[in-house]
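Worked example 3. Consider a protein that binds nicotinamide-adenine-dinucleotide.
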Amino acid sequence: MASDTNPSPGFKRRSFLGALGSTAAAGAANAQETPAAKSAPKRIRAGLVGAGNRGSYLARASDQLGKDGEDIEIVAVCDIYQPRRERVATRFRAKEYKRSIDLVNDPNVDVVLVATPDRLHATHALEAIRAGKDVYSEKPVTHWQQFDQLKELVRAVREHKAVYQMGTQRLANPVWRQAADSIKRGSIGKPVHVQMGYFRRGDSGERGMPIDDPNAKPGPDLDWEAFQGDAPRHSFSIERFFQWRMFMDYSGGPCTDNNVHFLSLMIKALGLDFPSRVVALGGKYVFNGSREVPDTFDMVAEYPAGLNFVFMGTYANDVPVDTVVRGTEGTLTVKDEPDGMVQPLAGVTRRPQGLGYGIDVNSEHLRDFYRSVRTREKPQGDIELAYRTQVLLIMAMRSFMERKVAAFDAAAESIVMA
Ligand SMILES: NC(=O)c1ccc[n+]([C@@H]2O[C@H](COP(=O)([O-])OP(=O)(O)OC[C@H]3O[C@@H](n4cnc5c(N)ncnc54)[C@H](O)[C@@H]3O)[C@@H](O)[C@H]2O)c1
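Given these inputs, the predicted complex is written out as structure tokens:
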């Protein structure tokens, strides 16, 4: 359990917002104070929702930041699967919750870390924001079928003046700020074409997800209903539960799982708004069986300022492409290598090392979130960037699934398929 259970000044204001229960009322309350006037708790007490692979990492990294002097503590853990919940809660002597709504309403929780499967991110983030908490949410912001929930989340974050950090941690690599500055200074003239990609060999990220217990069944220790959220109903299966990334109801494949990281970087660096049109093609060209999500996915997004963004990728071959922004007066090649540029040859066991920044983007991105919770300034992956990134993902997924061109009507904030 948490050693510091006294409600902090920051909590008092948040629980007031939570008690109001309506976003309109909360918005009115917020209108009377600027973000700077909000007080953040001295000790930040974090609650984790989703204690699987990534959630365990977020808890460990937050705990480490606490040990390194950031005054952060993991005080609560929620998971609908008992063994994972107990494992992580025991490690941090945190309170266990079976239901996320009970965790977000715990007055000892100041911020909520969301690391459940994609389809549940918006639900948990909304619950937390309506309870007056700040949120670090894993990517993608929502599932690709949840455009309405996305807009609801964006509205709620704005109205509550909550801190919301999208968990695309590569944003913490300073090379992207340098790229943005360079482009803003006009180094390449008007950017007109972007080339980017993510290539990997194998289906380890989907078929390779660990099965903790091949005999697991729904019951008091595994809430299958809560796992499914608003997804179409299926009878329980070990694959759907433990290897959910293989299925379209819970995931989207390369576009929403990995490409989202890189798309968010470029959208931020170029200051891109919403795309005007998006087309995407791909399929299951290599990995089959019960896997539903594509292994190969290429996308072209056209932006209103006059720019095409081409994103390529397959999980059948890991030969990469350079990240290139082509402008009317020059070309920018971005090397996104947080660990440095010295790469050992194949067979040499030495780790890549140190000409670069040598930072751990994962913990730096969390640190940026906790800093924002204290300062009330926008984090680097704020809700506006999250919104623009997620609209692009949803348009790409719909184009791929419906075999049409997805267009964005900015005035109506709607996606039109043609
Ligand atoms: N930023 C990154 O680099 C990175 C890396 C890995 C995963 N992720 C993201 O993290 C999220 C989780 O991925 P993972 O690999 O940890 O999956 P996982 O299956 O290991 O963990 C998900 C956990 O959520 C739990 N859960 C399911 N429904 C729940 C509910 N209603 N309430 C509470 N808990 C619930 C599951 O029991 C499971 O323990 C995904 O959205 C993924 O995209 C991000």
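Take a moment to read the result before moving on. The chain has a mean pLDDT of 89. Residues 302 and 308 are 5 Å apart (CA to CA).
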